[in-house]
Structures are given as C-alpha cells and as structure tokens.
Amino acid sequence: MTVQEILRQEIKTLKEQKIESPILKARIILSSILNITKEELILQENRILEDNIIREYKGKIEQLVKKQPLQYITNHQEFMKLDLYVNENVLIPRADTEILVEEVIQICNLQYPDKCEILDLCTGSGAIGIAISKYTKNTHISLLDISEEALKISKQNAKRNNIRNIEFINQNMFQNLRKDFDIIVSNPPYIKSNEIKNLQKEVINEPKLALDGGEDGLKFYKIIQKEAYKFIKKNGYLCLEIGYNQKEEVINLLQETRMYNKIYSKKDLGGNDRIIIAKRN
Known about the structure:
The chain is of the alpha/beta class.
C-alpha cells in the first residue's frame, strides 16, 4: 500500500468519525511515523509502506478516533518555537501560556540583566522554564514538579533544546525548598474538580493531576498565597497563569498577604484575563 492509498483510506475513516481537520491530522500522524515533514510526505505519495508502518499508522488513527490528543499520538508540541516532547504524563503546552513566558522574559531582561534565579513551579513538560532559559541570558532555572514522570519529560525537553543552566526538583510545591528566587513562575492546575467532566474529551485525556484545581479551582493558588513570598527575594516577582474567570479571586488572595505590590494582569490573544504579576515587597 502506498502513502497516497493509506492516506485516502484513513482520511475517510476520520471523516466518518467526524474528527476535525481529518486531512491535516492524517498527514501529521503519518509524517511523524516516517520522521519526515508534511511537505516531504506529498513528494513521497507513491512510496510503498512496510506492513509494520501500516499497522502502527492504523493504531494511531484509532487512538485519534478515541479522542486521544494528537500531541500525545505524535509526542510533539511546538511552544515558543521550541520542539517539545509530550506524552500522557504532562499537560500539553498551550499558546495562551506564551503570554506568561513573554512577560517573564521581559522582566528578566529589564530587572535582572546580570543574573536571575527562577523557579518554574508545577513545571510539567518544562515548557515555561525551558522557553525562559532559551530566550534570556544569565538565568538559572529550577523546574519543580511532584510527578517524577513529568520531570523525566522536562529533562528530555531541556536536553532536546540544549538547555544546560537548569536543575530539576521532584517534590510537592514548596516543601523542602532550600533557596530564594528572583522570580517564581507557575501555571498550576486551576480547573474546578466538578467541571473537569465537562471539558472536551481530548482535554479530559490529559493528566488529571495537571488539571484539577480542587473544589473552587483555587487550591494551588491558596498554597502559593501562603508560601511563595517566603521564597521570593525582596523586590522579586510572582508570575501566574490563571483561568479566564479567576482574576479577581487570585488578586484578592495575593492582596490578603500584604506581601506584594504592583499587582497587575494581562489578557491572552483571545481577550481573556490570563496572567497575574505581583512584585514582592
């Protein structure tokens, strides 16, 4: 069976199952298996595929039909022009999070041109910390996650993107932290527990540990409220991603500590409140 023939067959399957963008996704999966670009795939449409390739491809198409995220099937997600490996142990990095990274990069360049110690809390795939390190100078990044499997992925992504000035911490939030940071940045779980079941099936298939923010969605922000300022240097920064409707609640939590000033928020490209920045007193 040729590339053209298997594509025609599996695109038909995806269309019958009402999968969005069936042609694009079918091509992405096959090019991923063959380790070539989508453009090269077009040039090789008459290539005869081995039986093991066909079996693997059909298996991955079946995963897509069962609402497995495309990024987990191909083990790839682009973030801030970086090539990241992802699997079912980590949340898939989203474009909305790039707003947070861009803000931290700006703070680094303006406030810490010589040296900056940064903690990426609840790092998951390492996307935030790795991107900050890639696009700044003189930064040392600590990636922290409670999941050992997630940290394995972050280590792989750091190596893949040639990031060296970095360390990995496997622990629960602020427990046993041994130093202070200029910036703590985090995209913690913030979906309300009872709302997870209402998310798209593809999102539900992402790790619950990285989604579940407790009954009110604020579980981790409350931990950050109580603990983060103890590990941020004077005049340092706390930089958080938030859910689209959590701006006032999270700002109120931070104001209650009386440990921060100059608290502000920014919207994502969709016009939703997406990040909160607070300067430590």
